[in-house]
Amino acid sequence: MTQVLPFREAIKAVGEWSYRNFGNQKGAGPLAPLAGIMEEIGEQEAAFDPEEIVDGYCDQLVYLADVTYRSCVVTDPEWNDEVRMAVAPSLNVSLGQLAHAVLKHHQEIRGFDDPIKFQSHVEEASLNVFYAINRAWNQDDECRDRCIGEEFTRTWQKVSSRDWLTNPASG
Q1: 127 belongs to a structural domain
Q2: Residue 171: inside a domain, yes or no?
Q3: Is 144 domain-assigned?
Q4: Which is it for the CA torsion 105, 107, 112, 115, positive or negative?
Q5: Taking CA 139 as the corner, what is the angle to CA 135 and CA 145, rounded to the nearest 5 degrees?
Q6: Residues near 134 by Cβ (< 8 Å), separated by ≥ 6?
Q7: Domain for residue 170, yes or no?
């Protein structure tokens, strides 16, 4: 059994690793890992292999941790919190909320240049995304019999060993 990494700790670890490997993403900041979440959703939707489906969920969470870190937000969600999973909006709605906050902050419009407003919106939206992914995992035939926290921890261990500066083609 894998020791599960709390997501709060993952946010810091992923963010620090991402900054070492990618810097400020050519000025994109949290927009880049937000695009990464969307990339992983697309890959997962096209996947037929159960391991690719599992990897898709876990990679979405890696990117979510990076968005959260780059937005200077620290949250402490619990894996498989049944109550939060039940009330969280859909993944699409939650991602829309997160994208709204990140994009408007990047554009410095609609009051999102205020760091308190921006961070509070990112915190709420990122928690909703986290719980929507957890809910989807538990409803997925390929995943429901596995522990999402354990699978995420294993995925993060693999991802964190990559060095994209030294090996830009393969990490």
Answers
A1: yes
A2: no
A3: yes
A4: positive
A5: 105
A6: 79, 80, 81, 85, 148
A7: no
Is the model's pLDDT at 1 over the cut of 80? no
81-116 pLDDT, tens digit per residue, is 999 999 999 999 999 999 999 999 999 999 999 999
Q: How far, in Å, CA of 84 to CA of 117, rounded?
A: 22
Structural contact between residues 103 and 80, judged by C-beta atoms closer than 8 angstroms: no
> Per the structure block, which two tokens stand in for 125?
């939206």
Q: What's the domain range around 103? A: 7-160
Q: What domain count does the chain have?
A: 1
Distance CA 97, CA 139 (A): 22
Quick count: other Cβ atoms within 10 Å of Cβ 147? 15
How far apart CA 112 and CA 4 sit, in angstroms, is: 34
- The residue type found at 12 is K
